[in-house]
């Protein structure tokens, strides 16, 4: 596996990936045409905000399986196109929160006290004490727009500065805001009441130009604005005009609609304006944090495990992940085996969960069942992102059933796969951390789903097992385990052989022709 790390990612994450045996090529800066030219060789790509992962890049990235954004915002990645191609996009939702929060506080103070210009002129030998009189934060009203991770961090720090904090975030409850010490307000109230306004939300159709000449003119004269989120939330030209008109006394901006910003950017050279080149996440700690986060995510995905930080699949909390994680492998193997035994176009897949596991969302485990069932039969690599849509495309109805009552096993996963002709039912359970198949179509077994398994339902009569054993022996196939089980229904048994080698078609044909055998299927989990 080959991984391309663009945009100068911290070596800590690279080390994790190299220790896993992956080849990692690190580029500090990668021009767009070079990225397009080389991306086809790579299985995974790591970017910060500089590289743009466009539709063309994704098209050229024929082997791409995952893109890791070493940061929060994924607006430099065409996530919809990646999803359509089954490419997982992950980010580091919390790795740079503190860095961006502290940078915002630094920008607020630097702007309020004219620190950058005071430094610049003092360095030149000037002594301008009267010119750079600032304002205090204490007692001022701070309007925070976007009360997510960074917004909440700003609220906490602003309160330590004795600011009166109000906030606007249509997706945050009163209770949550109260817990942050923030009084929820409408956007109009934020505009009208704030001495300082700071924005902390993604750039979306809703937030683009959220602050523009209309509401800038409704702000308190002398208001100070901060944008360390995304360029374009505050209209840059309208902000520059409002600074020139004396409505806005200060603006502290870290992010721009076009980065690097053009030489004729309207905010350049304006008094009271503090600019930094997208430095919010640029601390040693944050860069280590985000690179470890994406490396762990890439490692997990390339090993076929689900990734908690994938932005293009249903998010899973750590709490839920801790409960469901031990079941992923079992779910996938049950899906693989049920699909193989069903032997035909699948119409429905039902995943039934029994026991404690029913307390949490099991959606991702059902996706694991689909992944296991579809991966051996599709050309496209099936993963946690594309498995549900691939199943839908194939007209497969997927059902999830939850049953709190337990019988023999405290946590049981039942997978039923139906074709037009039959339904295959498999059950699996965890013993410690080890998954076992415990029933096959009602026959009680105890099978390790990591082995190569030959499943043969047969008539319960003497000689059949011996004949199959001889066929295997004659073909040089070693049997390292065997179980025979019967159901309540008299007369039929199931034979499960653990075999060490692949079984060629002619040998399978001989097994199937044994009198009394009414089916033989080799389950090869290597196809997963
Ligand atoms: N400057 C930097 O280097 C830097 C570093 C880290 C993060 N960021 C950016 O900062 C922003 C915030 O990051 P975060 O980690 O706090 O994200 P987050 O997802 O934790 O929070 C975003 C918040 O925005 C709110 N929101 C969404 N639409 C909104 C709207 N229309 N009006 C008001 N609120 C809205 C959401 O409800 C959420 O609470 C992101 O855009 C991120 O890319 C920049
Ligand atoms: O990579 C960076 O330095 C910027 C990161 C930041 O904008 C983010 O969204 O996480």
UniProtKB/TrEMBL annotation:
Protein's UniProt keywords contain Secreted: no
Alphabetical GO biological process terms: L-serine biosynthetic process
EC number of this enzyme: 1.1.1.95
UniProt name for this protein: D-3-phosphoglycerate dehydrogenase
Gene Ontology MF annotations: NAD binding; phosphoglycerate dehydrogenase activity
InterPro entries (alphabetical): ACT-like_dom_sf (IPR045865), ACT_dom (IPR002912), ASB_dom_sf (IPR029009), D-2-hydroxyacid_DH (IPR050857), D-isomer_2_OHA_DH_cat_dom (IPR006139), D-isomer_DH_CS (IPR029753), D-isomer_DH_CS1 (IPR029752), D-isomer_DH_NAD-bd (IPR006140)
Classification via CDD domains: ACT_3PGDH-xct, PGDH_4
Swiss-Prot/TrEMBL catalytic activity: (2R)-3-phosphoglycerate + NAD(+) = 3-phosphooxypyruvate + NADH + H(+); (R)-2-hydroxyglutarate + NAD(+) = 2-oxoglutarate + NADH + H(+)
Biological pathway: Amino-acid biosynthesis; L-serine biosynthesis; L-serine from 3-phospho-D-glycerate: step 1/3
Stretches assigned to the ACT domain: 453-525
SUPFAM superfamilies for this protein: ACT-like, Formate/glycerate dehydrogenase catalytic domain-like, NAD(P)-binding Rossmann-fold domains, Serine metabolism enzymes domain
Originating species: Schwartzia succinivorans DSM 10502
Assigned protein family: Belongs to the D-isomer specific 2-hydroxyacid dehydrogenase family.
EC class (word): oxidoreductase
């Amino acid at each position: 596996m080959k991984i391309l790390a663009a945009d100068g990612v911290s070596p800590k994450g690279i080390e994790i990936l190299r220790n896993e045996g992956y080849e990692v090529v690190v580029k500090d800066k990668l021009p767009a045409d070079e990225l397009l030219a080389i991306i086809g060789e790579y299985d995974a790509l790591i970017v910060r905000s500089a590289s743009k992962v466009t539709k063309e890049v994704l098209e050229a990235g024929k082997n791409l399986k995952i893109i890791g954004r070493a940061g929060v915002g994924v607006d430099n990645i065409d996530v919809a196109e990646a999803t359509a191609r089954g490419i997982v996009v992950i980010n580091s939702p919390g790795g740079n929160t503190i860095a961006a929060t502290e940078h915002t506080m630094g920008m607020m103070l630097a702007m309020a006290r004219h620190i950058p210009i005071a430094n610049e002129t003092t360095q030149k030998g000037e002594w301008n004490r009267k010119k750079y009189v600032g304002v205090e934060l204490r007692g001022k009203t701070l309007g925070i727009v976007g009360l997510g991770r960074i917004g909440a961090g700003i609220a906490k720090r602003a309160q330590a500065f004795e600011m009166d904090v109000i906030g606007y975030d249509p997706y945050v409850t009163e209770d949550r805001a109260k817990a942050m010490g923030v009084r929820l307000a409408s956007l109009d109230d934020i505009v009208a009441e704030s001495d300082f306004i700071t924005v902390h939300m993604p750039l979306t159709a809703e937030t683009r130009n959220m602050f523009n000449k209309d509401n800038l003119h409704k702000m308190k004269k002398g208001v100070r604005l901060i944008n360390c989120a995304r360029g374009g939330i505050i209209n840059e030209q309208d902000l520059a005009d409002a600074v020139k008109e004396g409505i806005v006394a200060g603006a502290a901006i870290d992010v721009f609609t076009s980065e690097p910003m053009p030489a004729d950017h309207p905010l350049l050279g304006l008094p009271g304006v503090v600019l930094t080149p997208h430095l919010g996440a640029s601390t040693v700690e944050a860069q280590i944090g985000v690179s470890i986060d994406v490396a762990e995510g890439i490692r997990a995905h390339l090993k076929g495990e689900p990734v908690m930080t994938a932005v293009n699949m249903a998010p899973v909390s750590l709490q839920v992940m801790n409960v469901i994680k031990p079941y992923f492998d079992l779910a996938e193997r049950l899906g693989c085996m049920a699909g193989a035994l069903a032997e035909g176009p699948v119409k429905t897949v039902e995943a039934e969960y029994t026991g404690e596991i029913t307390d949490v969302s099991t959606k991702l485990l059902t996706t694991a069942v689909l992944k296991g069932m579809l991966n051996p039969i599709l050309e496209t690599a099936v993963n946690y992102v594309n498995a549900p849509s691939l199943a839908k495309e194939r007209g497969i109805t997927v059902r999830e059933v939850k049953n709190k009552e337990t019988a023999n096993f405290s946590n049981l996963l039942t997978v039923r796969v139906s074709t037009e002709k039959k339904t295959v039912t498999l059950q699996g359970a965890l013993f410690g951390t080890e998954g076992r198949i415990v029933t096959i179509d009602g026959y009680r077994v105890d099978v390790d789903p990591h082995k190569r398994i030959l499943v043969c339902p047969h008539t319960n009569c003497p000689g059949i097992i011996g004949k199959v054993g001889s066929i295997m022996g004659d073909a040089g196939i070693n049997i390292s385990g065997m179980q025979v089980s019967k159901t309540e229904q008299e007369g039929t048994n199931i034979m499960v052989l653990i075999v060490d080698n692949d079984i060629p078609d002619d040998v399978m044909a001989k097994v199937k022709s044994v009198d009394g055998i009414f089916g033989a299927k080799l389950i090869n989990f290597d196809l997963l």
